[in-house]
From TrEMBL:
Gene3D superfamilies: 3.40.1360.10. Residues 120-188 form the DUF3991 domain. SUPFAM superfamilies: DNA primase core, Zinc beta-ribbon. It comes from the Bacteria. Coiled coil: none annotated. This is DUF3991 domain-containing protein. The lineage of its organism: Bacteria, Bacillati, Bacillota, Erysipelotrichia, Erysipelotrichales.
Length: 314
């Protein structure tokens, strides 16, 4: 006998997220792991966050309850639909995760006429190599904002800007620009390498590239990603153990096999590193390479540059 589900009912079933299905009908399968993050009780690499789920050990993920039942529980599509329908007959689910509304187009902060102040800050104060800074300026990933002369670090979704991090060059101010999507944080990608180097922020990432160049290694030889300050949120359990910037980057770049973490040499950085490794080490080779004698990668670079300058004077 052919099984049939009316179109309106199928639409309703498809709209139910996996997290809402489990919260309503199988809450015993969820372990809270933060403000928005949950782990599956039977699969510790299966995480639910911000309405989505991802099974790190299998490199599979989705959003809907149907996807979850088919991929994780092994149901056929029809069996998954009927299971959800049967549950709904007993009690309609309480919806906690609404599908996102259509977002307004992301607009970057207005650009200044020049990038002189930002280039001076990055190259002369932070000692980042000028060729590297100019490379990202040319790509539209670094520029100087018209107002306040902030350094703006841009992430792209394809060829469209989707994220911007603003950092003052005159004060401690640093923040995401309104409407930014952290899934597309500041990064550099090359298919020539299967390693991904992960940093606390854009300046540490650029500092690492400069250190590569100092050691006669092309700065463009590795994939690099900035977490845009997500580590404090990981430790405070305000972010998932695998922040969305890293989660999304790995989903987009399936050539990555090894992850090297260069987070800050403090309690927050070390704890965030261990949280990330505890989730990803089943799927990727993970290495902790936080700076040992310096608080962060930029401080390591500044010391190396000053040491280089002293040797040149001798």
């Amino acid at each position: 006998m052919t099984r049939y589900i009316p179109k309106d009912k199928l639409k309703e079933i498809r709209s139910l997220s996996a997290i809402d299905y489990l919260k309503n009908y199988h809450p015993d399968l969820l372990i809270r792991n933060g403000r928005t993050d949950y782990i599956h009780v039977d699969h510790d690499s299966l995480h639910f966050s911000n309405g989505k789920w991802y099974w790190w050990s299998k490199r599979k993920g989705g959003t809907s309850a149907i996807d979850y039942l088919v991929t994780v529980e092994g149901y056929t599509f029809m069996d998954a639909c009927e299971t959800i329908m049967d549950a709904m007959k007993i009690a309609m689910p309480v919806i906690t995760h609404e599908r996102p509304k259509k977002a307004k187009p992301f607009v970057l902060p207005p650009k200044d006429e020049t990038n002189d102040d930002v280039i001076h800050y990055l190259c002369d104060e932070r000692m980042i190599d000028k060729e590297i800074v100019n490379y990202f300026v040319a790509k539209g990933q670094i520029y100087q904002s018209k107002y306040y002369k902030n350094a703006v670090f841009v992430g792209f979704n394809g060829n469209k800007p989707a994220y911007a991090f603003k950092r003052s060059i005159n004060s401690p101010m640093k923040q995401d620009h309104a409407g930014s999507n952290k899934a597309f944080s500041f990064s550099f990608t090359t298919i020539q390498s299967d390693e991904l180097h992960v940093f606390e922020g854009a300046i540490d990432m650029l500092s690492y590239m400069t250190l590569l160049k100092i050691n006669d290694i092309p700065f463009y030889s590795h994939n690099c990603l900035s977490l845009s300050g997500a580590t404090a949120g990981i430790v405070a359990k305000e972010e998932a153990d695998v922040p969305i910037a890293l989660w999304s980057y790995l989903k987009r770049n399936d050539h990555i096999k090894k992850i090297i973490l260069h987070l800050d040499n403090d309690d927050t950085g070390k704890r965030a590193t261990q949280s990330i490794i505890s989730i990803l080490d089943e799927t990727y080779k993970c290495v902790d390479e936080h700076p040992t004698y310096f608080k962060d990668i930029n401080e390591k670079l500044v010391f190396a540059k000053m040491d280089q300058q002293r040797k040149e004077k001798c």
